[in-house]
């Protein structure tokens, strides 16, 4: 039986914090690893020890196997938990751990290798009798073969990266004329993302449910399933909302899907936590999609409905212990739903966002759990995934879980970096989701270009902003001789000008909508309770230079104090400037100086947070200047190119 006493967590963020807590609960010492970008991260503080493993880029830190192993050697860690992402599904990492005499808390390398290759895993599943989607996963990778196989399979077809995951290297093709372009694009994306451009084809199942089964195996021949999770609400094949159990699965279907998942795991001698993912068609047929040979992001919903500690079970199984229960002991109680809180701008096609977190106040309440690895002062980096927290709620039934989660999302305050919080609350409040009818086409159907712009704040929110700006720091509330002030504010919702003056213990705030009497009941450095016309409310706030962030009434707004701002004409004159929408690396330049371009034509491609983003021409005109080059790291608002009206010289 393998023995270990100190666990190195080869990850970061919320999953590193989760594993550290789970290991501590089992009595193990823990070691965190961190890059230069994460020196002040929460997971570094929570571990017993922490080791710097390299600079910010993941390839030089969290993905560097030798640096991870050296950190284990120098701290005496005799086991490694990979979390999810990064090295968690790299067979080479599991093998390297074994050679170093370190226990890898996960499946054997061969299981990782087989299931990490989509073509090979599908061949194995077909041989094992697991239902699979008709497709082609052969070694002949010529376009001619793919075209012939697509004709045999029937359109629409899905082109997928054989070594892929996370939606990268994936294209849906509805007719034969689009296949060649899809193959070319998918190969390029797969080669960049995985270093492997092999592809496979599958018949596309239109708007299915994405239902996955949690499995667990030990080294004593026991394999069980822990029910299903429904992960149908996805954006670009990235999960957004997950729940257990699925509203589309009854006990009979659960038994069939669970048996198929156990069969899949048994066919490769699987050990540890894994997830077998299926597509569930409207007629009740289900098909093997892939197997994730690690702990899933969405594991908390399974924990909440089963009462099991999946991280604790991983540690027990890695130590050679048998599972302490059998299939007949697994029972689902109540309902749990999880959403992924991401640093992104839903109103701008979900572009990832970076920057400091000025306030982080996760919601609390019965049945609410929030897994995170951030705090005030955390800097959201462009080098890693945009997910910063998971908000989860349990209820006696699905509707109670949904209500609790919607409130928890609305009550969670994060200020300083834009997030998808309002988008998540909107999904949870939609009739289609509430009815349990959402499929994988939900986001594309309702939000084809992203979420709507930030909602206009209630009238009292800019009034509060004007008051807080005028007495910034709180020193003026009881100061004799406090003078009237004029405050000009601007934000995504528009601009306004206010006059603020004292009226006894209150403030009179005058603007276009009239005069409002506002009284501060209590105020500290990040929250304020106030009264307007006998209606008392609580708001959270944070200042970032001249910008005030306010979280209130379930929304988040930013108000810049423009009272003394003089806009530079030169800056405003750059109307044809093509700017970086976020921090990232330029991976492609598609235009040359002197080229005539159309509005919306691709100028460049920027990679940030593991996603590629097309940078488009803002107008018809001529490319006057290209100031970026492939491989260049750029910051938000950096000018990449300038497009001017006029003919080519």
TrEMBL record:
CDD domains according to UniProt = biotinyl_domain
Quote the InterPro entries the UniProt record gives: ATP-grasp (IPR011761), BC-like_N (IPR005481), Biotin_BS (IPR001882), Biotin_carboxylase_complex (IPR050856), Biotin_carboxylation_dom (IPR011764), Biotin_COase_C (IPR005482), Biotin_lipoyl (IPR000089), CPAse_ATP-bd (IPR005479)
**Could you tell me the superkingdom of the organism this chain comes from?**
Bacteria
> Residues in domain Biotin carboxylation?
3-448
- The Lipoyl-binding domain, residue ranges: 569-644
The protein's required cofactors: biotin
Could you tell me which residue ranges the ATP-grasp domain spans?
122-319
Q: Does the keyword Nucleotide-binding apply?
A: yes
What does the UniProt keyword field contain?
ATP-binding, Biotin, Ligase, Nucleotide-binding
Pfam name, any one: CPSase_L_D2
Q: Which NCBIfam families match?
A: PRK08591.1
Q: Could you identify this protein by its name?
A: Acetyl/propionyl/methylcrotonyl-CoA carboxylase subunit alpha
Name its species: Sphingosinicella xenopeptidilytica
């Amino acid at each position: 039986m393998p023995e270990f006493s100190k666990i190195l967590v080869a990850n970061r963020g919320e999953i590193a914090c989760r594993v550290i807590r789970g290991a501590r609960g089992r009595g193990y010492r823990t070691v965190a690893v961190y890059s230069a970008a994460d020196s002040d991260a929460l997971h570094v503080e929570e571990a017993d020890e922490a080791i710097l493993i390299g600079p910010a880029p993941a390839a030089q830190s969290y993905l560097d196997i030798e640096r991870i192993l050296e950190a284990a050697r120098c701290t005496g860690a005799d086991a490694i938990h990979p979390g999810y992402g990064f090295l968690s599904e790299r067979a080479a990492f599991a093998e390297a751990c074994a050679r170093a005499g370190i226990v890898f808390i996960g499946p054997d390398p061969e299981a990782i290798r087989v299931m990490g290759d989509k073509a090979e895993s599908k061949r194995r599943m077909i041989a094992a009798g697991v239902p699979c989607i008709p497709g082609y996963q052969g070694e002949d990778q010529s376009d001619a073969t793919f075209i012939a196989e697509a004709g045999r399979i029937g359109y629409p077809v899905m082109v997928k990266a054989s070594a892929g995951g996370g939606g990268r290297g994936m294209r849906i093709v509805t007719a034969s004329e689009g296949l060649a372009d899809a193959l070319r694009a998918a190969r390029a994306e797969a080669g960049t993302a995985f270093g492997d451009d092999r592809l496979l084809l599958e018949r596309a199942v239109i708007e299915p449910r994405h239902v996955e089964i949690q499995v667990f195996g030990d080294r004593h021949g026991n394999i069980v399933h822990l029910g299903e999770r429904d992960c149908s609400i996805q954006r670009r094949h990235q999960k957004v909302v997950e729940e257990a159990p699925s509203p589309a699965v009854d006990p009979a279907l659960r038994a069939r899907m669970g048996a198929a998942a156990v069969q899949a795991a048994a066919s490769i001698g699987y050990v540890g936590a894994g997830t077998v993912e299926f597509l569930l068609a409207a007629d009740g047929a289900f098909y093997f999609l892939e197997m994730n040979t690690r702990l899933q992001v969405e594991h908390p919903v399974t924990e909440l409905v089963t009462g099991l500690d999946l991280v604790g079970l991983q540690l027990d199984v890695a130590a050679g212990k048998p599972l302490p229960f059998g299939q007949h002991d697994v029972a689902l109680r109540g309902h749990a739903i999880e959403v992924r809180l991401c640093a992104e701008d839903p109103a701008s096609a979900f572009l990832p966002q970076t920057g400091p977190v000025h306030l982080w106040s996760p919601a609390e309440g019965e049945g609410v759990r929030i897994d995170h690895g951030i705090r005030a002062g955390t800097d959201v980096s462009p080098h890693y995934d945009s997910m910063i927290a998971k908000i989860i709620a349990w209820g006696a039934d699905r509707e109670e879980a949904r209500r609790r989660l919607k409130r928890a999302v609305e009550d969670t305050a994060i200020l300083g970096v834009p997030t998808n919080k309002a988008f998540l609350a909107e999904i949870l409040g939609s009739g289609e989701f509430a009815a349990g009818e959402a499929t994988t086409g939900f986001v594309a159907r309702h939000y084809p270009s992203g979420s709507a712009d930030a909602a206009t704040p209630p009238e009292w929110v800019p009034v509060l902003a004007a008051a807080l700006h005028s007495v910034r720091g709180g020193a003026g509330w009881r100061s004799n001789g406090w003078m009237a002030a004029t405050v000009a504010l601007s934000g995504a919702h528009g601009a306004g000008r206010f006059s603020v003056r004292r009226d006894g213990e209150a403030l009179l705030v005058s603007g276009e909508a009239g005069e409002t009497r506002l009284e501060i009941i209590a105020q500290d450095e990040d929250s304020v309770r106030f009264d307007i016309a006998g209606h008392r409310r609580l708001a959270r706030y944070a200042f970032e230079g001249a910008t005030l962030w306010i979280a209130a009434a379930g929304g988040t707004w930013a108000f810049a104090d423009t009272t003394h701002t003089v806009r530079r004409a030169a800056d405003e004159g750059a109307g044809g400037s093509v700017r970086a929408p976020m921090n990232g690396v330029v991976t492609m330049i598609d235009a040359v100086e002197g080229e005539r371009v159309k509005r919306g034509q691709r100028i460049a491609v920027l990679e940030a947070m593991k996603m590629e983003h097309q940078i488009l021409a803002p107008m018809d005109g001529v490319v006057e200047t290209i100031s970026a080059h492939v491989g260049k790291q750029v910051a938000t608002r950096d000018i990449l190119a300038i497009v001017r009206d006029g003919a080519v010289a």
